[in-house]
UniProtKB/TrEMBL annotation:
GO terms for biological process: methylation. One of its GO terms (molecular function) is methyltransferase activity. Residues 6-153 form the TsaA-like domain. Residues 176-194 have a biased composition (Basic and acidic residues). This is tRNA (N6-threonylcarbamoyladenosine(37)-N6)-methyltransferase TrmO. Keywords: Methyltransferase, S-adenosyl-L-methionine, Transferase. NCBIfam families: tRNA_TsaA. Residues 161-194 are annotated as: Disordered.
Amino acid sequence: MKLYEIRPVAHMRSAFRQKYGIPRQPRMVDGLRSEIVFDHEFNIPEAVRGLDKFSHIWLIWGFSENQLNMRELHPAWRPTVRPPRLGGSVRMGVFATRSPYRPNSLGMSAVKLVEVKYEDGQVSLIVEGADLLDGTPIYDIKPYLPYSDAITEATEGFVARPEASGKTEEFGETGKCGKTEEHGDPERAGEKDDIPGAQMTCVEVEFPDHLLAKVEEQYRKPIIGILQLDPRDAYDRDSDKPSRLAFGNVDIEFISREGKLIVTAVRELAE
């Protein structure tokens, strides 16, 4: 078999310092901004000429942290996986999911392009809604074309839209918690799939003001959005043990009580 080699054109700078807490799909959390910094060979303004005319872009990137065995040259892959949306108890074919344990370990995300930036000789892109770990390699960038990329009749398979837990919420086209976008369809929120556990739940979050004040303003809205999506693994959701989420320059500790997540501590992370 002939092998093909690809190389990164850029790397991601994001507030996600660990895999835990990263939304499982792009554009699920409002206010989540990050920066794509082009590598030296591709740090050429002409290479992004015209990109600023597009509102959204596709990112082709690598699951750089998914090695099952770090001693192996290539990441391990699995023919079947347990999607978190199914509670980790049902197996699906890897090609029917967006699991990181893939033969070629590639991911793709559609994100909002906020700015094409050129500063001090460095080309970068400011984007919103990326579900990527800090340092993730970006292999390609393409403009999102609504007339061909948006498929209105597409079905969702076993992946249902979010439903609220603990209080009434509305969900827009992107499935964000507590938000209905201009072209959203709230009537579809809460549709059930035939597979038990396929529904994603948005939870109520209690974040005391004195703790929220310890978080930089730019990170407050994204952190609350991440917690609303409940970052805990399915098998941990019945536990009353504290969980921790590292985001930006802070470590957030929270517990689950009476169907909602309660933030109990905020600590500054060392650089």
